[in-house]
Design goal:
Blueprint: E1 3-7, H1 12-20, E2 25-26, H2 33-42, E3 49-53, H3 68-73, H4 78-87, H5 89-100, E4 106-110, H6 118-123, E5 128-131, H7 136-155, H8 171-183, E6 190-193, H9 200-204, E7 218-222, H10 228-236, H11 253-256, E8 261-265, H12 272-284, E9 286-287, E10 296-297, E11 301-306, H13 310-315
Parallel strand pairs: 1-2, 1-3, 3-4, 4-5, 6-11, 7-8, 8-11
Antiparallel strand pairs: 9-10
Length: 323
Amino acid sequence: MASILIIDDEDNYLELCKRFMPEHTFLPPARNYREAQALLRRHRGRVDLVMLDVHFNIPEDDLLPRDKQALLEGAAAPERVIERLRRTQGLRILDQLRKDYPDLPMMVMTSRDDLPLEADAERLNAEDYTYLLDDDYLDARSLKLQVDGILASTTRAPSEVDEPFYWGSTPSMHKLRRRLSVLARGRLPIIIQGATGTGKSLLAREFIHPRSGRSGRFVPVDLSTIPNDLMAAHLFGVVKGAYTGATTSREGVLERAHGGTLFLDEIGNLGLELQKALLLVLQDGTYRPVGSVKERVADIKLVVATNENLAAMVRDGKFREDL
C-alpha cells in the first residue's frame, strides 16, 4: 500500500484512482501549488508518489513567467498566450516541486491529447506521464500499471524486480526507463531501432498487452530466418488446400499471440506485399489466413525491431512509409 498525493483543481482523477486503485491511500487532494507544499510538509517522508494534472483553470500568478507582460505585449493573440500558460500550469508546479523534492516520484497527467508531454516530462525529470482520454476502463487499467511500475521501481532493489532488463544510473538510462514506463503498457504499436547487440529483443519483452499484463503470452519471430515464400503462412496462418503441400490448416503467429504481445524482429526483411497486409492489421485489427475468405480479429500488442535504416529503405522504395 502506498500513500499518493494528487494535485488537481478538479476531482475527476481522484475519483478514478480511488475506484481502480483501492489498495492505495490517497491524501486529500491539493488544488494548487500552495496546498501541495503544505500537504507535502505535513506528510514529509510519507508520500510515495505525486500525481499531477497539467491543466488548471485558475493558475497561480506567482508561478507564471516573470516576463508574462512582455510576452503579452509582443503577441499577435494575447488571449492564446494566456490560455497556453493556463494549460501548462501543472508543468510549472512540477518544476517548483522538483526543486524542493528532487527524489520524490512524480507523474503528470492530462485529458488533452493536444498537449505533447514527453519533452516536458523528461526535462523536468518526471517519472512518467499519461494521457487519460475517453475510455475510463482501459485508461484506468493502464494508469494502474504505470503507478504500480513507478512504485515498484522506487521501493524494490533491482534483484527484486520482475525480469530485470537494463540497469544503470546514466542520464540516457533514466531517459530509457521513463520512456519505457509510458510506452510499455499502452496500446500503441512499438518499433525498436538499434544496432545488433544493443538489446532490442530483451527490451521487446517489456512491452506487454494492456489487458493481459505480464501473464499474457509473448510470441517472438525472427523474420530473417523465414523463407519469403513461407512468410505469409507463418504470419497469418494457412487453411487446408490453400496451395500445394498445404495438407492441413495451420495457425499463424498472429493467432498464437492473440491476447498477448507479438514481436517481429528484423522487420526490414518483410516484403512490400506483406508490409501492406501488416498495415491492414494495424489499421483495422483484422487479417485473413492464406487461402481463407474469412477475416479474423488480431488482438495483439505489436512490437517490431530492426537494425536497418528504415528512412533510407523508404527512400529506396523498400519499405512502406505509411507502415
